[in-house]
C-alpha cells in the first residue's frame, strides 16, 4: 500500500483483490505492469535487450524507433524516433518513473501502428489537435502572448498543467536528464510533481497525433488494485480533481458452477416410471405425513 489514507488502507487489508477505477488516469500513478507499455512495439517486430541492471532497450527492426526503460532512473521512459540510426532523433518524449503506464502505452501503440502500416513516423495534424481532448474534459487552454505559451489546466486542480511553449527549451545542463527533448522548444506535462506526481516532456517536432494520444490516455479512466493506490490519487479525489470508484468483485468460476449445479438439481425432471419427488396434491386432499399413523380404535390401557 503506497497511500497513508486510513480508509483506503483498511479497504486494502479487508479486500486485497479489490480494484479501483481512477478518473482521470493522470492521477492513477505508476503500475507494476510495465510490460503493457512495451508489448505494442514487440508485437510490431521490435527487439528487446536487457542489461544486468534491469534496464531495457527496445529497438524497431529498422532501428528508427527506440524505447528505453530505466526503472532506477528518475526519467524512467525515453522514446526517440530517428530518420537514420546514426542521426540525431527527429523527435523524442521522456517521462518520469511515476507516469501512468497508460500514457506510455498510448505512445508505443501509435508508433507500433505506424511501423506495421508503413506510415510516416514524423509530421501529423494541426498543432492544436490535442486541445480537443482537454476541452472535452472541461479543461481550459489559455494563451500568454508575453511568453508565447499555451497552458491547459482544470478548474479543480489548476496546479496540474499541460504546457506548450514554442520558444522555451531546457537548460543544456538538463539535457542528459531529459534526453534530446531539451535541445529544442518543447511540450510538457506537470501533474502533482510537488506531491509524488509525474512529469513528461516532448520535443516540439513530436507528431500531434502522439500528443493527442497522450492527452486522451491521461484523461481516460485507469484501473489499479486497491493496494497500489498512492497519495496522488487519494489526494486528487479529496480535492474533487479525480473520482475513485470501487469495481465490484465478480463471482469466481467455482461460484458460477455451483449456481449451475443448484439450478440443474432444482429443475431436473423425474426419470420415466419413477414417482415424482414432490407428488402433487388434489384440492381438498391433505398432504401425507412422514410419521407412522396409529391404528384406529380405543387404546388399550
Explain how this protein is built.
This protein has 301 residues and is of the alpha+beta class. It has a domain at 25-220. The chain is 28% helix and 22% strand. The protein is built from 8 helices and 13 strands. The protein has helices spanning 6-14, 35-43, 101-117, 129-136, 175-178, 208-219, 231-239, 253-267; strands at 19-23, 47-50, 56-59, 65-69, 77-82, 89-95, 140-144, 149-153, 161-165, 186-191, 198-203, 222-225, 243-247. The strands form 2 sheets. The chain has a 10-stranded antiparallel sheet with strand order 2-3-4-5-6-11-10-9-8-7, with helices on one face. Strand 7 and strand 8 form a beta hairpin. Helix 2 packs parallel to helix 3. It is globular, with a radius of gyration of 30 Å. The model is unreliable at 276-287 (pLDDT under 50).
Amino acid at each position: 500500500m503506497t497511500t497513508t489514507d486510513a480508509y483506503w488502507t483498511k479497504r486494502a487489508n479487508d479486500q486485497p483483490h479489490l480494484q479501483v477505477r481512477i478518473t482521470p488516469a493522470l492521477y492513477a500513478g505508476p503500475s507494476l505492469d510495465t510490460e503493457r507499455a512495451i508489448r505494442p512495439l514487440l508485437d510490431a517486430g521490435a527487439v528487446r535487450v536487457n542489461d544486468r541492471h534491469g534496464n531495457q532497450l527496445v529497438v524497431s527492426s529498422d532501428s528508427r524507433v527506440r524505447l528505453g526503460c530505466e526503472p532506477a532512473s528518475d526519467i524512467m521512459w525515453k522514446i526517440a524516433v530517428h530518420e537514420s540510426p546514426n542521426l540525431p532523433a527527429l523527435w523524442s518524449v521522456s517521462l518520469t518513473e511515476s507516469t501512468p503506464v497508460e500514457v506510455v502505452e498510448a505512445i508505443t501503440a501509435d508508433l507500433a501502428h505506424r511501423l506495421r502500416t508503413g506510415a510516416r513516423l514524423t509530421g501529423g495534424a494541426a498543432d492544436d489537435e490535442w486541445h480537443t481532448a482537454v476541452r472535452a474534459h472541461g479543461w481550459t487552454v489559455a494563451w500568454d502572448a508575453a511568453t508565447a505559451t499555451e497552458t491547459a489546466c482544470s478548474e479543480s486542480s489548476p496546479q496540474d498543467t499541460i504546457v506548450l511553449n514554442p520558444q522555451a527549451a531546457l537548460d543544456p545542463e538538463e539535457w542528459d536528464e531529459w534526453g534530446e527533448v531539451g535541445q529544442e522548444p518543447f511540450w510538457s506535462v506537470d501533474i502533482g510533481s510537488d506531491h509524488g506526481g509525474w512529469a513528461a516532456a516532448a520535443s516540439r517536432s513530436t507528431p500531434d497525433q502522439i500528443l493527442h494520444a497522450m492527452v486522451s490516455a491521461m484523461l481516460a479512466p485507469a484501473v489499479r488494485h486497491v493496494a497500489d493506490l498512492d497519495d496522488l490519487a487519494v489526494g486528487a479525489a479529496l480535492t474533487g480533481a479525480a473520482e475513485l470508484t470501487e469495481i465490484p468483485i465478480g463471482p469466481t468460476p467455482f461460484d458460477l458452477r455451483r449456481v449451475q449445479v443448484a439450478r440443474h438439481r432444482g429443475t431436473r425432471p423425474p426419470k420415466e416410471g419413477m414417482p415424482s419427488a414432490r407428488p402433487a396434491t388434489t384440492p381438498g386432499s391433505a398432504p401425507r405425513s412422514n410419521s407412522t399413523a396409529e391404528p384406529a380404535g380405543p387404546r388399550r390401557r
